[in-house]
Amino acid sequence: MKVMSVFGTRPEAIKMAPLVKKLQEDPYFESVLCVTAQHREMLDQVLELFQLRPDYDLNLMKPNQTLSMITAGVLTGIDEVLEKEKPDIVLVHGDTSTTFSAALAAFYHKIPVGHVEAGLRTYDMYSPFPEEINRVLTGHIASWHFAPTQRNRDNLIREGIDPEKIIITGNTVIDALLEVARKPYEFENGVLKDIDFGEKRVIAVTCHRRENLGEYMHHIFEAIRDIAEEFEDVEVVYPVHMNPKVRETASEVFGSCPNVHMIEPLSYQPFVNLMARSYLIITDSGGMQEEAPSLGKPVLVVRKETERPEALQAGTVKLAGVERENIASLARELLTDRAAYDSMAKASNPYGDGKACEKILEALKWAENQSRKS
Ligand code: UD1
Ligand code: UDP
Predict the structure, then answer these.
(1) What angle do CA 350, 268, 45 make, to 5 degrees?
(2) Is 372 one of the annotated active-site residues of the chain?
(3) Of 199, 238, 271, 319, which alpha carbon lies 20 to 30 A from 285's?
(4) How many C-beta atoms surround the C-beta of residue 323 within 10 A?
(5) SS3 167
(6) Contacts by 187-196 with C-beta closer than 8 Å and gap 24+?
(7) Residues 6+ apart with CB under 8 A from 136
(8) Of these residues, 208, 219, 303, 324, which one is catalytic?
């Protein structure tokens, strides 16, 4: 069975890497990897860590790219790859512009699509933007849906997707996380090497969502600065996303704050170790909401909504919104009230047991046998 996997950004790469590795190892499959490089440096960090060599690299990234630029670039770039490879199935992941455009291109070639991380929804078309619509549209193009949780499956069924085509697998991010977290690791980054994680309380921060750019991001960063100024034993470590708009706001707000350390994006292994050694995480990332429950680290999600309510229910994650005072007061509570902290800092696995990739491979074999019979 010839399987072509397509991804382009950091989170897709982290979540697809263990799956592509498994496809490459299993003689049942011929694996073809096409990266769009919607991200460049942040994608390459993941490819290097997991030692993946793409068969095709569309090298699309442009500084300050618009959504239309990415969409058009993927559609035209992937056309000839599909024409040449003629895979039996195209696998895409999640909700990026790469995801939707690659799925659409596969559909134009009448090639079935398998959607990994299917069925997440906020039901607000502008939040996350444009991801909510990317995943809804991809879901309606896909033939096979690999849903991380029962709730994701239910969402798809409500939209009229055939239940027989939905397989609950857990999230492949847990496969990636467990593989990376079990290896011993010493920090190489100078800032991280110098922090005494025993004495200091480290807050790991990331923030990049398009709907937060501008005013909301300002409020979020001001709240984090308030906390850094208030607590002497806190060190904030912020690997800043490479989006120039994010970098501009971060420098404006954190410029002169001695215990806020803005560093370059970390490769996945140091980043997982940073999360694991941190006291608290403040983020608008989707993936980190899935990783943190496994690590037992409290997360304040600086967004107005989340498509990952399982983490809220598990208690590890709180929705902090985008208002300065609210974010600061929730962080303050976790830094001063031990009982409040302990009630969040508990490990659980709502997103799976690290066997999602195995389940997807089994499902692909089953799907191929079904289509042979019919
Ligand atoms: C994209 C995805 C988002 C995902 C996020 C993960 C879309 C619409 N958005 O958003 O779903 O959560 O990635 O990070 O698909 N840049 C670099 N080097 C890099 C990466 C980015 O310089 O390695 C800069 C470029 O100037 C680029 C800009 O960041 O134009 C924005 O990248 P883009 O992929 O358009 O949007 P993200 O906000 O990263
Ligand atoms: N991550 C990383 N290095 C960093 C910041 C994040 O490897 O410097 C990882 C993080 O653990 C998670 C993923 O990147 O698995 C999240 O990516 P991002 O925030 O870019 O996208 P999102 O999760 O919001 O889609």
Answers:
(1) 135
(2) no
(3) 199
(4) 15
(5) strand
(6) 187/270, 187/273, 187/274, 188/270, 189/263, 189/266, 189/270, 191/237, 191/261, 191/263, 192/237, 192/263, 192/270, 192/274, 195/235, 195/237, 195/261
(7) 121, 159
(8) 208
Per-residue DSSP letters for 210-241? GGGTTHHHHHHHHHHHHHHHH-TTEEEEEE--
E-strand ranges in 98-179 read: 113-116, 144-147, 166-168
Starting from the edge strand earliest in sequence, which strands make up the sheet with 2-7, in order? 56-57, 30-35, 2-7, 89-93, 113-116, 144-147, 166-168
The C-alpha atoms of residue 21 and residue 358 are separated, in whole angstroms, by 11
Strand partners, 91: 5, 114
Backbone phi, then psi, for 261, in 5-degree steps? Answer: -105, 110
Which residue type, as a one-letter code, is found at position 228? A
Residue the block writes with tokens 């909301």: 216
Mean pLDDT by 10 residues, the chain (374 residues): 98 98 98 98 98 98 96 97 98 98 98 98 96 98 98 98 97 97 96 97 97 97 98 98 97 95 98 98 97 95 96 95 98 98 93 96 92 76
How close is the Cα of 22 to the center of ligand 1, in Å?
A: 27
Distances (CA, A) of 149 to 3, 152, 154, 267: 24, 5, 9, 27
How many CB atoms within 10 Å of residue 70? 23
Distance between CA atoms of residues 323 and 233, nearest Å: 24
The closest of 22, 81, 93 to 55, measured between CA atoms, is 81
| Structural contact between residues 358 and 169, judged by C-beta atoms closer than 8 angstroms | no
Pairing label, strands 234-239, 201-206:
parallel
Whether 6 contacts 163, CB under 8 Å: no
Quick one: which atom of ligand 2 is closest to the CA of 239?
8
Residue 374: per-residue pLDDT: 72
Cβ pair 35, 8 in contact under 8 A: yes
pLDDT value, residue 235: 98
Helix (H, G, I), strand (E, B) or coil at 305: coil
φ, ψ of residue 328 in degrees (nearest 5)? -65, -40
Q: How far is it, in rounded angstroms, from Cα 52 to Cα 33? A: 9
What's at 165, amino acid-wise?
A: K
Active-site hit among 95, 132, 175, 307: 95
Identify the residue whose C-alpha is closest to ligand 2 atom 3: 266
Task: Specify the pTM.
Answer: 0.98
